[in-house]
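Figure 3 (text version): structure tokens given as input.
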């Protein structure tokens, strides 16, 4: 199954650019196979995306904005639903993919299975050593993922600060121009 992420390479909106970068960076961090499809340069991609986003998920103007995410032909969601799934540690479920062994999502699924089935892995000392090794590995992955997410947040904050500075400079330039014209 291939995840399709519809993006716009030449978007004028920094908010859209950041959302696209967030989705792509997170998928890369999880090592999820995906294809990025540009709707700005390819009319077929744009029309396919618009046609396949469910009506109830389209904004009031009827034109969905990127990023939009699909699993093959199946609609997964937009940035907001992706972000919610990321916060809930359910990105694989959101994408319609099985979670990899050892991931938080897989553990949550295992816990649900244990509760539903009433079974537990007991007794074998090799199992406990393996479980401990898996927990340590998972902790390392979580730490790495947290570091990557923190780096992304810092980059986003820096971008926002730069944008605000640019806007303030533009406003100052505009005020100076208006003052000069008034004189």
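Below: residues designed for each position.
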């Amino acid at each position: 199954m291939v995840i399709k992420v519809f993006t716009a390479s030449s978007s004028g909106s920094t908010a859209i650019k950041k959302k696209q970068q967030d989705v792509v960076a997170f998928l890369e961090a999880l090592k999820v196979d995906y294809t990025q499809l540009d709707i700005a340069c390819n009319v077929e991609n744009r029309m396919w995306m618009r046609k396949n986003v469910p009506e109830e998920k389209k904004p009031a103007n009827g034109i969905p904005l990127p990023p939009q995410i699909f699993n093959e032909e199946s609609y997964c969601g937009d940035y907001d639903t992706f972000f919610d799934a990321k916060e809930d540690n359910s990105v694989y479920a959101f994408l319609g993919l099985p979670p990899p062994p050892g991931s938080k999502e897989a553990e949550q699924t295992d816990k649900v299975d244990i509760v539903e089935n009433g079974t537990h892995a007991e007794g074998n000392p090799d199992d406990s050593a393996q479980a401990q090794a898996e927990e340590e590995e998972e902790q390392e992955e979580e730490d790495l993922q947290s570091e990557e997410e923190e780096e992304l947040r810092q980059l986003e904050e820096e971008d926002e600060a730069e944008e605000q500075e640019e806007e303030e400079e533009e406003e100052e330039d505009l005020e100076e121009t208006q003052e000069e014209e008034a004189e």
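The CA atoms of residues 26 and 149 lie 8 Å apart.
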